[in-house]
Amino acid sequence: MTMLAQTAFDAPTGLASWLACACFLCWLTLMGLRLTDRLKSKPHPRDVQQEAAEKYVSKQECLLSHSGFRTDLQNHIEWNRREHENLFSKIGGVDRGITNRIEARLDKMEAASNLGRDKLHERINEVLAAVSNLEGRMEERRD
User: Which domain holds residue 101?
Assistant: First the structure.
């Protein structure tokens, strides 16, 4: 006993050991209760739940309702597929219309750009001709 009193007692270690002991006691109690249930021949809870489910719905009724659900699901999947196809075809039509309008606008812009470039080059040529005419006159005066 004196040796136990001489060891250093750490609070977290002591708390952990008490919790471990409490968990072990709970587990031991649970195992004891399970053992007494088996000795009394009580059924396992899973078996009780299965029995209760079979009281309300038979396996055949469950399969029939499942097959009905399956056909409803197949019908819904088919309807959903048709709706998607309709939406995608509408989107495709809108996309083609917008693409055509954009291409038409780009063609107009390109034509306007070409026309503006041609006019600019004509103006540059006119200015160049006027400058070279002025240069010619200036040289005549120097001579």
Answer: 88-131
Alpha-carbon torsion (88, 94, 95, 96), positive or negative: positive
Report yes or no on 80 lying in a domain.
no
Amino acid letter, 135:
E
- Please count the structural domains in the chain: 1
Six token digits for residue 115? 């026309």
Q: What angle do CA 102, 90, 101 make, to 5 degrees?
A: 10
Report field, pTM of the whole predicted structure over 0.85: no
pLDDT for the residue 131: 92
Query: Is residue 105 one of the residues assigned to a domain?
Result: yes
- Lowest-confidence region among 3-12, 22-31, 88-97: 3-12
